[in-house]
Amino acid sequence: MEAQLLSRLLFLLLGFIIVSGEAAPTLVTSLPGFDGALPFHLETGYVTVDEEHGSELFYYFIESEGDPRRDPVLLWLTGGDRCSVLSALLFEMGPLRFVIEPYDGAAGTVPRLHYHPYSWTKAASVLFVDSPVGAGFSFSRHPRGYDVGEVSSSLQLKTFLTKWFTEHPDFLSNHFYVGGDSYAGKYVPIVAQKISEDIEAGLKPTINLKLLEEIYDSQILYKKCNYLSPTPNDKTTHGRILQQETGALKHPPPRPQVDCHGYITYLAYVWANNNITRENLGIKEGSMGEWVRCHEKDLPFTHDIESSIKYHRNITSKGYRALVYRWRP
User: Fold this and answer.
1) CATH among 3.40.50.2300, 1.50.10.10, 3.40.50.1820, 2.30.30.100 for 24-219+303-316
2) How confident is the model at residue 74 (pLDDT cuts 50, 70, 90)?
3) Which Pfam families match (predicted)?
4) Dihedral sign, CA of 60, 257, 224, 183?
């Protein structure tokens, strides 16, 4: 009886180790909606940033299409309230774009993608991270793992980078930059400062920190359209993003006109909630019900950075380069 109990306990411990261990990254060679093999190197994966609650940040890593062993590596964070970094990858600076055309929602189809020849990945490797926990495909096994704030999320990003570079030592010699748009401007200087402190303390791995803060095109030449997200905010819809009109998902949006810039968010919602898309990206089954672009008020978050000026001052006084600008809609 005692041996049987010991055997069962050992089995449970091994099961816990297997479940909680870091999963191998996924090499993505094709995606639904894109014709043929991807013409660039795309890796996705999870990094555990909170062992106690089982919190994992999801990332997309696209190697430079130039010289990935010499070109800089850029960590990119999307702004907003828990907005998915997929927005940056597919709407702003990544090598893929949605084909802007009417989508009829026919069974078995997803919005089409095409190659974007002017991506930032032409000159840099970009590490797109869904942060904080709960943004995009990042998740926590315990509800308390979602209860984070600006400081704790920044520290989790530092943990993410330490683990990611430990698993990707070939990129340690590349110049490294931290960047983000809009609300991510609160995280960027703290992450940069924490990296610089580790460098000064001689901690490993040594990240080759060089610059960069908030690079984002305000898109002033686009047609003026209402901002699309189904959570109402005063007289506008602002916050979460879209959902199919079938009612099967939780947040059905109005379908925007094709010539509105917000139409790409509609296409992204359909694409990211497709089962084949998730399978190709290596999304853990059961980790995330519905992908939404932004979680605005439905998950706890503490706003505990009143000003990021001191972090900017700490970084720039050490000789690190920075670009800061203010964006107004």
Assistant:
1) 3.40.50.1820
2) very high
3) Peptidase_S10
4) negative
